[in-house]
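Possible race condition, two jobs.
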Amino acid sequence: MKRVAKPTFATWCAAGLTGLSLYAAASHAADNSPAINALLQQAVYWHDKSHDDLARESLQKVLAVDENNADALYLLALYSLKNGNQAQAAKWRARLTAVSPSDTRLQSLDSANVVQAISPAQLAYASRIAADGSTLQAVASYRALFQDATPPDSLAVEYYDTLAWLPSARPQAIAGLRSRLQALPNDRSARLALGRILTYDEANRREGIAILTPLASASRNADAALRQALLWLAPQAADKADYDRYMQRHPNDSALWQHFQQSVGGTEKGAGYAALNSGDTAAARSRFEAVLTANPNDGDALAGLGYIALRNNDFTSAENYLNQATKQGGANSAQWAALAQDAKFYGALNQAKAAAAAGNPAQALTLSAPLAQETGDKGLAAALFRADLQRRQNDLIGAEQTYRAILNRDAQNKDAKLGLYYTLRQENSPGVAANPTRRRASP
């Protein structure tokens, strides 16, 4: 696949080293007086306009006031290199070394010296084949230009960016960029390259995303790299903040948000149902809630919370969750709808039981009357509740009638047989109680 060509040092090398001079000098300019800073800025201006004679004049004025001014010495050495005057460059570099032996710009001068010796045509060739995807050949070309040494500052990012396309050499590229950022923490191009390269591998992807995120709002390249990384990532619920930050800038990027929802949903739901099946309802709840944080309308997660509520006899919550799940549609919606009706029934039956426990048997019987008309096990459960309540209230005739009605629907119902037996015992009908299914003779 052909890669998009990036601006390289080769494209601006012929126009001068102004960018390098501004970058390196800026970190020291705060130590100067306003008058000296004005002369330094004037020198940079004239150099940018290709008036190096005027630039040197401004810098000599600085040295007339402060003969050991490191900024002026650095710029004089750099401009001499740019003009091909190696002897003058060496002279100014020696003075800078004497004044500031640990100055980081000494390495920049060495790098600039190396760059001056590089053939622009050969550098352009290496950049072109790198952009065309011929990575092995491009890396070999760069190394030949650098004579297998550390790449010069101005070409370091370009070189490491190319090197990273070789999986076996990627750790070397990452180490090189980390080293560069340790020395030059404000190098945004190196930071962007490091962040992007880290996202190539799953193990480092989150670190890369963390580096790219603060750069993305001001850099289209960083933003594009961040989006690709978020699409590559197999996200977890904890990654939601990264996707939220991106979506705040791109609210219409539905493909990215759908990737997050589907990925998180599949992983978390699988873990949630596994926990539910093993009886760990707390872990299951945590997983399902994580899914719903990403996608509040996920039917499977809503149903999962419904199942948990059913296990906890929280029928009101179960009905609510299962009805919400049903509204999402899907292959399981009919099953969820049936379970929601079950939850509604048993919630109503619980209300009747609560009324009985509170000493309101009449209300309990009223609430349970329509429930006993249900078919199947639900209707039988409500009828048994009513019969037991009638017997406890000494409505023995009513209890007997209800138990017998249950046995008409389910002749083998053990609970109804036992309830009827005790009812008949209470009615002092021992003969009938011995065979509760036999009806008593009419008087």
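Job #2 (started ~2 s after job #1):
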Amino acid sequence: MESCSNQKSVKQIQILLPWGFMLHHVRYSSLFVVDSSENLLPWGFMLANNLVFKKVHWAIGLDRCRNCLTGAAPITRETLEYFMSLRLPLYELYGMSESTGPHTISWENNFKIMSCGKVVNGCQTKLDKPDKDGNGEICFWGCHVFMGYLKKPEKTEEALDQEGWLHSGDLGKHNKDNFLFITGRIKELIITAGGENIPPVPIEDAVKAETAIISNAMLLGDKLKFLSMMLTLKVRPQTLDVDCITLAFCQQRGVVATKASEITASKEPRIQKWVILDRDFSISGGELGESVNVRNIYSTSQKFGQTHSFKDFSLFGLFSTL
């Protein structure tokens, strides 16, 4: 009888979970606003809390957890959103051993997803040598910053400048509300053959956010003329079959493969490089003929200065753009 009762309870929770998740999303979408003093609750939220969330918290052993904090390593947006859907928001901290722990902190009513929060009271943050997008090296200042490494003056000079700022080696930027976002490491900067400094993490994150089937992305281009990217698809670890999202994405485009290896081994024609031109083709410009089709591909590409760049391109099996 007890087993049947437990199974019935589990089925009830499974039925109510989507409803509870929806209410929780509405609740936290309105709550996590900068300096919001209103604790807005959608209709039915307290009922969902008692029927769904409390039981889920108890089932996973976190029914006595009051606040969940995360730090020391990057965390994905999917993980943050998953725990948020369970009414267990994860608040991010950011700091170093050399700063005696946290330097910035997120908290309820003072939260932005994927942000490390705001600087703690009595401390200051400086972005050293920011680029045009506002990304600079994150530097700490305050009483929590250490005095230096014991008997290692050279290493101390690398970490602390003459004004007492601790250089973290991390790249970051502030939004308009002064929330800190980590965008990469200085040592991870890609320096192209043309001398351009490119932080790879924002580009990699943008690709993964834009395309649901991409699991990981790695930008390449150090000392090269162009950027390339290695991509991996979302698969099931045991079988290496693509997951349901990737499978649906492929089927919508007429691809019947079920494994990542089958997709990459496909002999279908593929575009290996593309470029966006600064103006459209036209008859008056000479690119289009009277029947409005492209006249001479070679002369057109030569006119737009793309012939040599395409000849110099080497694919290595990667997706690539200029």
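The first strand starts at residue 68 and ends at 70.
Logs attached separately.
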